[in-house]
Amino acid sequence: MPSEPRLLAGTPPPGHAYDADIVILSHHRPRETIAAIRSAAAQTGLDSHVIVLDQNSPPGMRAALATVATEFPHVALYGVGQNFGVPGGRNRVSALGHGRTIIALDNDAVFAARDTAARAAIRIAGTADLAAIGFRILAADGRSLDLTSWGYPKRLLPRADGFFAATTFVGCGHALSRACFERLGGYDESLFFTWEEYEFARRAIAAGWRIEHHGDLAVIHEVSPEARVNWNAGRWHQYVRNRLLIAHDWNGLSGFLFRAGIYLARGINACRLRPTLDAIAEAHALARTRPRHQETAEARHYVFRNEIRHRLPGGARLIGAGATASARRPPTAAPPAPTGP
User: Fold this and answer.
1) pLDDT for 291-332, tens place per residue?
2) Is-contact 215 161, C-beta < 8 A?
3) pLDDT classification of 3: cutoffs 50, 70, 90
């Protein structure tokens, strides 16, 4: 299997622009992935194409996915011969389509409503500077919040079903502006897993785009133990390493050392001293090979208002509260952009 995606089954996306691509990465989890594909294919109210990229799952699983892909006229299954990780996989699957909005669904999740994708596409198309919309991630019961997927400051939990400006979005379910995605060059593939949404969001904010959480758009997440990186193994290493790289990208050595101290203390408390030290050492070596990002004063204020302020203790978080950038109520009636070349 070549490193570039090859069509395995279904219908490839049209060569002209349309409302949205719904993209799904596949790596094991056959039952959940089939449910995700069926949920994506059942979305209504927009011109969309479902694109699934399988990253080297077993042949039997690929055969099962191919059978499902052929059931729908707007589903394509592609395959690659290795696992490029989350950012690498998303870059490749997104490049296959031409939808003005890129809607990503984890392969162990389903949409909570049949018009979720259409409403997300309307909002991206109707707001020129909106880079990304994070969806609300529900637990398997379809009612309660999946706290394991909450990627925002804890103080924002009471607003989970509402709207707020943010500095990241949750990968399990979200929508991206293709114009922004392509302008920024997609995700940073070197991260492989964890923090890829935050890294992308920070570059988008620096370029003048906004990130929002829309709690009325939701997916249901069936948290699967299969193919998950265990916190006691590689996941903690990736988590620490990648966050330190991002800290260095934006704040240099001082930002790196500040974050390293935090994770070192956490690693000691969790009896993960050795993997923490390994992650810090690897991040320090890699950081020197990465270009530093420049941030405008406006971007720094945005990050402070919509992230840092919510993490400050006590009354300190009220600093700058009057200037908080709140998410604008989304459009509800405007249709997605016209389809066609």
Assistant:
1) 999 999 999 999 999 999 999 987 555 555 544 455 666 655
2) yes
3) confident
Beta bridge partners of 220: 110, 138
Nearest to 98 by CA among 43, 26, 19: 19
Q: Are 272 and 264 in contact (CB under 8 A)?
A: no
Q: 126-142, pLDDT tens digit by residue? A: 999 999 999 999 999 99
Helix (H) or strand (E) holding 201: helix 196-206
Q: With beta carbons less than 8 A apart as the criterion, state whether 184 and 203 touch.
A: yes
Contact assessment for residue 68 and residue 35, using Cβ atoms and an 8 Å cutoff:
no
Straight-line distance from the first to the last Cα atom of the chain, in angstroms, rounded to the nearest whole number: 32
Strand ranges for 69-201 from DSSP E: 75-80, 99-105, 109-111, 130-138, 163-166, 173-177
CA distance 173 to 24: 10
Number of other CB atoms surrounding residue 269 within 10 Å: 9
The tokens describing 232, both together, are 């006691």
For residues 170 and 74, give the distance between their C-alpha atoms in angstroms, rounded to a whole number: 26
Q: Specify the DSSP class assigned to residue 28.
A: S
**pLDDT higher than threshold 50 for residue 208:** yes
Domain boundaries defined on the chain = 6-221, 234-287
> Taking the model in full, what pTM does it have?
0.92
Q: What are phi and psi of 334, to 5 degrees?
A: -65, 135
What pLDDT, in 10s, does the model give residues 42-69? 999 999 999 999 999 999 999 999 999 9
- List the one residue out of 191, 183, 186 whose CA is nearest residue 208: 183
Fold classification of 6-221 is Spore Coat Polysaccharide Biosynthesis Protein SpsA; Chain A (3.90.550)
Ramachandran category for residue 102: left, alpha or beta (phi over 0 → left; psi -120 to 50 → alpha) = beta
